[in-house]
Design brief:
The chain is mainly β and about 200 residues long. Helix content is about 0%, strand content about 40%.
Length: about 200
């Protein structure tokens, strides 16, 4: 756990290596900026690869995964894991049949997160496979070069995204980010996504 939060506590992969792995069910990473990670060859989770555990109160920004035909999870590749209270932005996975610019995962809970300004070939924001749920989150403003700019599959509850995901409490309204080009994803007053 960082002492001073993600604005000043940074794990930087220098565009050369994967930043972090979490492999234990009791593992918790709390309060870091995880940035400029890169994976070549394996191509899974340039910022964070999670096989278990919890990632919370973090910023996952500007990570790039690439492995030719099977790149997944530019920011985060996760299963049997929880991602909570995180900002996941400006990550990319654009090689081959790449999926999940921000997050690729299964058996995963994505909770109280903002996933924005990420890019992939398929599912620019999140690719949530079996038993993966987005809850109380915003997945918006991502891009894909082929299809599904924000999301492809998964379960969604109280999530703001477009197109409208099926499930209780979801919205397809523009969240009205304050200044996304400057990395400010606070919601402007009047946003229908406040308290989703």
């Amino acid at each position: 756990r960082s002492a001073n939060g993600p604005a000043v506590t940074i794990i930087d992969g220098s565009n050369a290596v994967q930043c972090l792995q979490i492999n234990h069910a009791r593992g918790v990473v709390d309060g870091f900026m995880i940035t400029r990670g890169r994976t070549d060859g394996v191509g899974e989770g340039a910022g964070v690869k999670m096989q278990a555990g919890t990632l919370q109160n973090c910023i996952i920004r500007s990570n790039t995964a690439c492995s030719g035909s099977a790149s997944r999870g530019g920011g985060i590749y996760a299963y049997n894991a929880v991602i909570r209270n995180c900002l996941i932005d400006r990550n990319s996975v654009l090689c081959g049949n790449a999926q999940g610019g921000g997050v690729y995962g299964w058996s995963l809970l994505l909770e109280n997160c903002t996933v924005a300004s990420n890019a992939a070939v398929h599912a620019g924001g999140v690719y949530l496979a079996s038993s993966a749920t987005s809850r109380n989150s915003i997945v918006y403003g991502n891009t894909a070069t082929v299809d599904y700019p924000n999301w492809n599959t998964g379960k969604f509850v109280n999530t703001c995204s477009w197109p409208l995901p099926s499930g209780p409490g979801n919205l397809d309204a523009d969240p009205l980010f304050a200044a996304p080009d400057a990395g400010d994803y606070h919601l402007q007053s009047g946003s229908l996504c406040i308290d989703t």
